[in-house]
Amino acid sequence: MNDSEILIALCEASRRLHDAGLLAAGDGNLSARLRDGRIAMTPAGVPKAWVKPQDFTYLALDGRVLEGRPSSERAMHLAIYQACPEAQVVIHAHPPVAVAWTVARPELNELPAEALPEVILGAGAIPIVPYARPGTPELAASLLPYLPAHRLLVLARHGAVAWGEDAMEASGAMERLEHVARILKAAVELGGPTFLPPDEIGALHRMRAELGPRIR
Fold first, then answer.
1. Are the CB atoms for 28 and 48 separated by under 8 Å?
2. Within a 10 A sphere around the Cβ of 46, how many other Cβ atoms?
3. Three-state secondary-structure class, residue 20
4. pLDDT > 90 fraction of the chain, expressed in percent and rounded
5. CA-based Rg of the chain, rounded to a whole angstrom?
6. Phi and psi of 154, rounded to 5°?
7. CA 131 → CA 47, 97, 102, 151, distances in Å?
8. 202: which of 13, 35, 121, 143 is 20 to 30 A away, CA to CA?
């Protein structure tokens, strides 16, 4: 995939996430590692439903702004690219129900996903990163204990971030997160989630290990 195709894929993912209610107005940001090592990133303040390939800004991996006005969340994206050589795309969004879990249940350190085999097979686990102020170096640093082992993270009281080897993987991870969060919310409303037995959880994690690290 050439750089032009990468940017088009990011624009398509941006519109899809907006249409699904996971991005609102100018919130969130998407980026990709280009073939020459530069990082292309959505610009600050541009609604993601209308972002176009010519709107992208460009960064060096060391944080230098090469062109345009990138999002204030760029440190978070760069932290992922620096810690995860396989990361080609990073998406930060604000999935409403996933974030609501962190507001209502601040004691959780991950979504209670062992109720659902699809979560274990698709992501392994979905950790919740403790709160750090958006747009700060502290937020970027808060991700490091979870990298590169996890490709999908909930950011407490803020949003979520997903990385992948292409736009399809990263955007699909964000869609999966919100779908799981809604199922778990419904389970709570119906009386509380129940969990798979330990031997089944172990078997599913072994299957996940055989499938590899991609989010599915």
1. yes
2. 19
3. coil
4. 91
5. 17
6. -95, 135
7. 25, 17, 9, 18
8. 143
Report in angstroms the alpha-carbon separations of 89 from 39, 169, 197.
9, 9, 35
Burial of 215 (0-12, 13-18, 19+ CB in 10 A): buried
Q: What is the pLDDT of residues 16-55, one digit of tens each?
A: 999 999 998 888 999 999 999 999 999 988 888 899 999 9
Please report which residue ranges of 20-150 form alpha helices under DSSP H: 74-83, 96-104, 117-123, 137-143
Domain tally, the chain? 1
Domain that holds residue 146: 3-211
Q: What distance in Å separates the CA atoms of residue 158 and residue 143, rounded to the nearest whole number?
A: 13
Q: What CATH number does the domain containing 15 carry?
A: 3.40.225.10
Is residue 216 in a domain?
A: no
Rounded Cα gap, residues 73 and 135, in angstroms: 5
Within a domain: 54: yes
- Quick check: 142 pLDDT over 90? yes
